[in-house]
Amino acid sequence: PQEIVSGESEEENNGVNLMEFSDEILLHILSYVPCTDLVLNVRRTCRKLAMLCLDKSLTHTVLLQKDYKVNKDKVKQLMRDIGKEIHQLNMAGCYWLPSSTIDHVTRCKNLVKLNLSGCHVTSLRLSKMLSTLQHLRSLAIDVNPGFDASQLSSECKATLSRVSELKQTLYTPSYGVVPCCTSLEKLLLYFEILDRSREGFMLSGQLMVGESNVPHYQNLRVFYARLAPGYVNQEVVRLYLAVLSDRTPENLHAFLISAPGSFAETGATKNLLDSMARNVRLDALQLPKAWINGSGLLQHLKFNNPFYFSFSRCTLSGGHLIQRVINGGKDLKSLTSLNLSGCIHCLAPESLFRKAEDDIDSSILESLVVSCCNLRHLNLSAAHHHSSESIGNHLCQLLSRLKHLLSLALPVCSITDVAANVEKPPSASNLVPQPFGRKVRVGIQTYPRNLADQANQKIESVFWALMGSLRFLETLEIIGSSFSSAMPRNEPAIRNSLPPCVRAQSVGDSEVAAISQLTYLQSLTLAQLPNILTGSGLINIGLQCQHLRTLSLANLGMLGKVVYMSALMDMLKHCKCLRDLRLEQPYFCAGAQFFQALSHCSALQRLCIVSRSGTLQSDAVMSFMANCLEVIMCHMFMGESLTVCKNLQQSIVRSFQADRPALNVVIFPLLHEDLTEVIRDVPMRHLDEITLFKSRVAEEPPNLWW
Question: Domains of the chain (ranges plus CATH)?
Fold first, then answer.
């Protein structure tokens, strides 16, 4: 026994002692540890770590927004131990914490930035908390039904008068705390007001009695408003804009309004835009499509050093884009983010007599690439961008020049090889979408799984070359131009889907395999790729893209059968960093084999499955939840009965809620008439980030909020 002990001591002496590292290296290592673990656990291990864990570099900024294991007691202890050292506190999306948790924030006397979006905060609690935070300059809160600005104390209003940055999410018609913030420089507004109450009553866009105070915009530099679908949201945002139309702030440099559907221009908004054209120079711009379409607005607006443009869903032609926005390439090297999603004519010289499916003008795209050579985020989805047969002018070849791209969204039909389509036109049977459940015999595509063989076989592919040139791409979306999710916002589930574009018919396994070249890929979305026959390319992505954290797959291959299930299960066994998985596919079988493969994803936190006529095995789901301890969100909208769904949901909550405070479970029939009522109770963080399908590339300016 003495020899064994001696041998162990010698081995320990020859090993590396972590405590021998310099303080700088140790601080860098500790910066990757959640603050709650540092303060409540790590610092109790030894004297040196006790000192380092309280270093200002680690306690200055505390991020709790995705610390799903934090609870009320941990927050209380954290604030007690280091509250006075915290200058920035982010609790965004901590929906599971009771409202009384907010009371402990009062210990953070030196707070400068505070994010409470998604937290339960009443008017009285907000007043009490803000009364003690005299140094606060940046605030993010939700305004829920029952909010009453008259309950805010004079000390609270004094704090708000010094706030220069405000992010406000509105669930009820209200100005919130905006009228109290007399020094505002940045205002972000998220309108999530429903048109009907839970009882079915129509809501009004008029503000509550006593909320007629006028917002103070004289120092405003950034105005951003994002509207969820609904008439009431449009009515309320007009009240916020009315003040701007009277007097446009001289220092305004970013004006952004994201509004789905039709948001008509009024006399007040026209006056606002005319005033902006005369008095300000912008760096970021996004407007509702109705405000741009058919107007000469862009010709009159002046830009300084623009970093973000969004013309999503506008009928802006490529000719206007080049003449009025790019302006011959002047001063556009500053542009880092561009959203042209749904802008169907943006790569054509004019839109008057053009069909959406006509070939693009490659010279317009080339001008865009040359002028905006520093683009990091580009969205060209939801449109038919068909390249001509001209050699060297394919969309993929031109985009390969954008070496700084970090995120990219493209329609499926834009990545197909023109030559391949000419040589092998799709058969008539392939052009017609097959009805659900119909058995179609298909020859299995023989595609090499070895990467070297793939490279040799596809070296001539323009998409393969594009993926090879964008080595540092972190986010990629390839979405069918006619794809629409089966579960849209605030509406019943869509029962019929449009057929894919004819040009997209040849896009399948080989193109998916090309994506595996993206070594640093973190987020991948693939939707409506009709020629997926085996899904073999998914395996390559699982093997090569080891940083993948978010995966969203929708309507791949034939819709009557999940042809890629075997490949998906093989892929999942290699996705050790995967945190979010969203699957949308008719007839998906969430059974024992699938969940066994998914259990290899040890870091998985959120799962969402949307499947018309899909089935699930309750025992397999329960076993998966027991094995994957990090999972805190399980959303499944399938074809099962309401009884089966409710029983499974109750079993999961009953078994795992105690150990997982943030657990959010929704299991519900996809085609049930009460689906929209169920959706409204989902925390906004999950709803916005994973449950609802949408393109997220260049959705808003980079670094809009900290």
Answer: 463-690 (3.80.10.10)
